[in-house]
Fold:
Amino acid sequence: MLVSDLHGSSVAYGKLSNAIRFYKADVVVFAGDLTGKALVPIIRDDGSFSLGSGVSKYVVNIFGDVKAVDGKDLDKVIRELRGRGYYPFVTDKAGYEELAGNRDRVRETFVKLMINALEEDLGKVIARYREAGVKLLIMPGNDDYPEIADYIRKQASDVLIPIDEDVIELNGYYFLGFGYSTPTPWNTRGRSVRRSLGQGLRN
Structure:
């Protein structure tokens, strides 16, 4: 079975863990774009206490769609965002302003949340595949940061087999993984061939 472009959706990862039964697969190739595309701040707005409601309210801004959220609904909102492949980040106003003014901090936070989510989602997939005796051949794609490629390499196990920039023989077949792309019109964040090979390629 071949899959790609799950883009951090916890729902899609859940389907990945269950699809082996439907397709009766013994080998799954996950061909890149493992992580999502957006960090979504959830800003805590502390107000005065009133009977029947919590102290904190939250404001969520998803691409200009601003919503107020009660504390009791926060977990639901976080689950919905993760299901869509977004990375919710709960903070206060000061934390948001600090983040918004520091691109390096945004990237650092984004990568950390990606890895945390990947660890959770991929961990469930690996556990299911180990029970079923299924191998997962995996590589990052052009939308994945280099840190994600490093993380995947470190997760190699009896189930998870990294194939990026490598050739793997399995069951008499050879798999060559190359998760880079040529430069795209969208300036994808991660891994274009030009950036990976440096001076070797020119216009």
User: Anything to note?
Assistant: Confidence is low (pLDDT under 50) at residues 48-52, 193-203. Helices lie at 10-23, 74-83, 93-100, 103-132, 146-154, 193-197. The chain is about 35% helix and 25% strand. The CA atoms of residues 49 and 63 lie 30 Å apart.
